[in-house]
Amino acid sequence: MDKPQILQDIISAGLKKQDEEKIKTLYRENTINLAKQRANDIQYGGDHYKKMGIQPWDVCDTWPIEQQIGAHRHGVLKYIMRLGNKDERLKEAQKVLHYAQKLVEVLEKEKAGGK
């Protein structure tokens, strides 16, 4: 198998054929939703982080920009690599998109000159 080139290919590689349409729909819906909400405002797979006074991402947001980028790249990688091994694949794919959204937000902040 050739190495996947984009996030959607990586996610799809771990899915059964019948799940691919679910992922495409999820991708379209989340692309629309991502423009409306910040990553810190949503959570997939429960509300355990939302119940905390300070969420882990709040702590990461205080780190130097390169450390923030590394943390969110790790999150994307973690959920891609474990796809289907812990939680339902669709839920884990949502988490991949969630971390990717946070990574995009940090990269936009970096581009704008934020630290």
Give short descriptive properties of this protein:
115 residues; mainly alpha; 5 helices; 0% strand
Q: How would you describe what is shown here?
A:
It contains five helices and no strands. It is mostly helical and 115 residues long. Helix 2 packs parallel to helix 5 (89-111) and helix 4 (65-81) runs antiparallel to helix 5 (89-111). The chain starts with 6 loop residues before the first helix and ends with a helix. The model has no long low-confidence stretch (mean pLDDT 77).
Percent range for β-strand residues: under 5%
Arithmetic mean of pLDDT: 77
Our Rg estimate from Cα atoms comes to 15 Å
Reported for the largest beta sheet, the result is: none
Structural class: mainly alpha
Measure the end-to-end span. 40 Å
Shape type: globular
Number of helices: 5
- Report helical residue fraction: 55-70%
- The topology string of helices and strands comes to HHHHH
Low-confidence stretches: none
Strands, total number: 0
TL;DR?
By secondary structure, this protein is mostly helical. Helix content is 61%, strand content 0%.
